[in-house]
Amino acid sequence: MNKADALGFALAAVARLITGAQGHWKGVPPKAEQRIYFANHQSHLDWVLIWATLPADLRARTRPIAAADYWTATPLRHWITREVFRAVYVERERKEGGPDPLAPLEDALEHGDSLVIFPEGTRSGKGLPQEFRSGLFHLARKFPQVQLIPAWIDNVQRVMPKGEVIPVPILCTVTFGAPCDLGADESKADFLARARAAVVALKPGGGA
Amino acid sequence: MKFLQSLSAQQHVGLLFLILFGGLMLVTAATVLVALREHRPADDPAAAKFASDLRATWIGALVFWLAWVSGAAGATLLFAVFSFLALREFVTLMQTRRADHRSLMLAFFVVLPVQYLLAGSRSFDLFTVFIPVYVFLAIPVLSALGGDPLRFLERNAKIQWGVMVCVFGLSHAPALLLLDFPTMHDRGPFLVFFLVIVTVSAQIIEELASRRLRQRPVARMIDRRFGLRAWLVACLGAAVVGGLLSWITPFKLPQAMVMAVIAGAAGTLGEFVMSALKKDAGVHYWGNTGQVTGAVGLLDRVAPLCFAAPVFFHSVRWYFQLKP
Questions:
Q1: CA distance B308 to B272
Q2: Does A78 reside within a domain?
Q3: What domain range includes position A46?
Q4: Sign of the Cα pseudo-torsion (A142, A145, A150, A156, in order)
C-alpha cells in the first residue's frame, strides 16, 4: 500500500466515523458498471461522502471533477486530488476559442471510468438544488451507454456549514436512485428538469 | 454462596465469562437447531428481530470481554467511543441550526474527552459537576455568541440534554469501574457487570411481562406497552437477578437486591423516557432501518444504561461513603 492509498483509506475511515457514510441503493445495486453519478451540492464534504459510501472496488474507478485553478494551486492540493482521488481537472472559466471544457470528462469516460458530477456548479446554501447546468446533458448525449444515476446527499450541510472548518459528527446518508437516461428526442431543458426532479425525489421524507 | 465467595477475583472473572459465553453459545446453538427443523418463511419479522438482537448481544459480550482485557484505560476509552456514537445519533435527529455549530463542537471535542479524562483520573468530585454546572453555562454562552436568537432555549436545551444523557450518563459506567471500595480491591469491573446485567434483565423481563400481563398502559400516546404491573415485575426481577449476582459485588445480599431494584427501575424508566423522545422526533428506532440516518441504533441499546448508571453510581457512593 503506498502513501496515497493509505491516505485514501484513512480519509474514508474518518468520513465514516463522523458521518456514518451510509449508502442507500434504492434504484440500482452498487455494481462496477460505468456510471455518472449526479447529486445535490451543499458542502465541500459532498464528494468525500459519496466516495466513502461506495464499496472499495467501485471507489477505485470513480473520479470526481475538480476546478483546476483551485485544486492545482498548491502542491498538497494537487497531490491529494491527483493521487488519492484521481480527480478530473476542468477549467472554471470557458475562454473564447479555448478547448472544450468538457473534453477532460469525455476523456475519462472513454477510458471506462465512472464520474461524480454536481450539476449545480456551486454549492446551494440550503434547501432544494438550483437549476442544473447543461454539462450533464452533453455527456448523456455523447455516452448513451453510460448509466446516469441520481443521488441525494442528506444532512451534510449540518456537518460542516459554509464558513466552518471543523466538521461536527452528524449522520449522513447518500440515496442512489434508478438510472435517469436521456430520452430519444428529449430537449435539453426537459432532460435537465427531469434529472433535477429525480435527485429531489430521493430526498428522505418525501422531497418537494 | 460460601464457595463462590471463597474464590479469588481472577477465578470470578473466569467463571463469569464461562457463564456469559456458555449461555450465549447455548442460545445460538438452539436457534440454529430450530432453524434447521422448522421451515419458517425467510422474512418472518420476529425471527429477524431475534437474530439481530442475538447478534447484538454477541457483539456486546465480546466488547465487554475486550474492555476487561484492556483494563481501566481500555474500558474508559471504549465507553468514550460509545458516548461519541450515541451523541452522534442523538444530534442527528435534533433540529440544530447553523449557529449551533460551535456548541456542538464543544460538546463533541471538548466536553466528551474532558468528562472521560475526569473519569479516568478518578477526579470524581469534578466529574459529577462538570457537565451539570460548567458545561450548562458554556453551551448557551457559545450559542448566544453565534448570534441566532431563533428558538434559542429549545436548541440549547436539546444540546444540554443530549450531553447529559449520552456523555454524562454513560461516563458513569467506567467511573464505576474505577470506584475504590476499601474492603475489596479491584472489584470495580464487577460493579459494571452487575449494573449492565441487572439493567438488561429488567428490560427483558419488562418486555416479556408486558406481553403476558393484561394491563392498562399508563401513557398510551407514548408507549402502549408500558404499564405499572409489568414495571413492578421488572423491578422484582431485577432484585432477584441482583441477589443471584451478589457474590461478585462488594454488597451483602439485601444491599445487592436494593441496588439492583434502583438500577433496574432507573433503566426501565429511562427507556420509557427515550420512547417519549423518539415519538417527539418522529422515529421508531434511533438508528434506523432505512429512512433518516444510517446508524446501528446504538442509542436504543445504551439508553437504559445512560439513565441507570448515574443513579446507581451516586447511590453506591453516597451509601458507602466512598471517597475517591
A1: 12
A2: yes
A3: 3-201
A4: negative
Element (H, E) at A150: strand A147-154
User: For the segment B125-152, what is each residue's pLDDT rounded down to a tens digit?
Assistant: 899 999 999 999 999 999 899 888 888 9
Domain ranges of chain B: 2-319
Task: Give the torsion through C-alpha atoms of A47, A53, A55, A58, to 10 deg.
Answer: -30
- CB pair distance less than 8 Å for B108 and A168: yes
pTM score > 0.90 for this model? Answer: no
Assign residue A52 the CATH number of its domain.
Answer: 3.40.1130.10
**Interface ipTM above 0.85:** no
Residue A79 lies in a domain: yes
Interface check for B84 against chain A (CB to CB < 8 A): the answer is yes
Domains: count for chain A: 1
pLDDT tens per residue, range A111-151: 999 999 988 877 665 567 888 888 899 999 999 999 999 99
Alpha carbons B52 and B43: distance in angstroms, whole number: 13
Interface of B with A in 107-166 (CB under 8 A): 108-109
- Is A208 a domain residue? no
Residue A207 lies in a domain: no
Asked whether A85 and A64 are in contact (CB, 8 A), the reply is: yes
Closest C-alpha to B259, from B272, B249, B273, B269:
B249
